[in-house]
Sequence to fold (545 residues):
Amino acid sequence: MNNSRVSAPHPVNEPVLGYAPGSPERAKLWARLAELKARKLDMPLFIGGEEVRTNRRVDLRCPHDHAFVLGRAHEGGPAEVQKAIAAALKARREWSRTPFAARAAIFLKAADLLAGDWRWTLNAATMLGQSKNAHQAEIDSACEFIDFLRFNVRFAENIYAQQPESPRGVWNRLEYRALEGFVLAVTPFNFTAIAGNLPTAPALMGNTVVWKPSGLALYSAYFIMRLLEAAGLPSGVINLVHGEPAPLVAAAVAHPEFAGLHFTGSTAVFRGIWAQVGAGVGTYRNYPRLVGETGGKDFVLAHSSADPDALAVALVRGAFEYQGQKCSAASRAYVPADLWPKVRKAMKDMIASIEVGSPEDPGNFVNAVIGRAAFDKIGGFVDRAKKNKANKIVAGGARDDARGYFVAPTVIETSDAKSETMVTEIFGPVLTVHPYPENKWKETLKLVDESSPYALTGAVFARERTALLEAERALENAAGNFYLNDKPTGAVVGQQPFGGARASGTNDKAGSQLNLLRWTSPRTIKETFDPPRDFRYPWLARDPA
Ligand code: NAD
Fold:
């Protein structure tokens, strides 16, 4: 037994590769795209180290080429959830007692594999299955996922190092146990890194997990399981079950050993699960930990002193990268009327040069939205906006689903700051701008704060320091991630811990120590070296007569 106190390698953010023409990374990634497309995946469920095939199968298709079938995935139901829970509880006995260094080494190895040849596989899978271009896949499925894996090890070490005071004669210890039971991870379609982080963060802390990925991102989920397998994750530590979401999740949260939920997705779904857990609160062995990062209606607010060119770039990148399907995407903007004509022109010029199409063609900045339901929903917002007399379509407004689910980057100018697209989460490439009278800065701060139930990300553009300071104060609770003269997207693990409050989530900050604290249940151990042998305290003795 080696009793040394170990220290993991110091984490450094994974460098983002450029994929310029002629670069080795472009050649490798495009070669892997061709390889993946040439094979048809048969995706099983992963339960207790076994590949389970139910023969109830769904097609996995490319959003940008919906006739192209990448493979098929077997679907599970509540019976498979019960098997996955049993496998997780069985694996927990050994895994929760596995030394931290041994657990951490598996995730650090996964990070190194992903920084090597697995990078092309997971990036290619994310491009094909979720329609991300090479850059969006690189910053997500390679860099952010690698960062989660490496930084979480450092965060866990920091937590484990925190120990209480011990006066003379006593030794106080905090033992950081895994939660008693299993953790359920329910993940969204839009980030492969989040899909990877939600099951692996609790697992790093000694928990075992039932993972329900999004039905819209199964293709990359399959490769995450294979990557973890290649890194040596023992059977049953993470069990993947997918199928019709509501019955699967209901079956998991009804189990008395349900110990925690690690969720990212929409506000309505999280609230629904929370209600089920609340209704069952008397049935659990422990109070389950509920961690949820949910929707947003992220704002960009400009002051008259803002740099119009920087503002226009932030709006275009913040609203349209990954088709606006980022929880942090800029979706409503407030621009002073005196600045708006210049900003509008700069945005229109940029948007005119944006090409929309398949991520397999590197010239396309905007790719397809995730599927038919999203395409119809986003289109509905645009159609209703066109009918509203308070609105003008400044750019875009069209869509085309002949080959893939393509929605043109759309900018709506509105005189009504409470119109539908200013206050509702759309989750697509649609930005609404409200030009406000430049002398109404203070009123606009209030408007920004009160127009939406969400509080995820927000950005303020100003060159005057007093304006930035005023905005920081007035919008204290309007965003969990607040940006000064920068776009509201692109949080980096270890640099900008991510999450919001109000209707945007429990704000447990993915990519930070705060998140990992939710996956441990400390036990305090007090040891007294020389315990008293007389019950009487000195004060009981009477003064001599
Ligand atoms: P979603 O809510 O549709 O799905 C999320 C997960 O919940 C999926 O695994 C899905 O299968 C499951 N699910 C769906 N319906 C369910 C039900 N009735 N019962 C139980 N589970 C159910 O979200 P999505 O479309 O995958 O992702 C987009 C949403 O996620 C947006 O609202 C976005 O803002 C949010 N999001 C937030 C963050 C954040 O950090 N705050 C990050 C990414 C995405």
Summary: The pocket of nicotinamide-adenine-dinucleotide is lined by residues 186-191, 194, 212, 214-215, 245-246, 249, 264-266, 269, 272-273, 293-296, 327, 425, 427, 456, 498-499, 504-505 (CB under 6 Å). The mean pLDDT is 98.
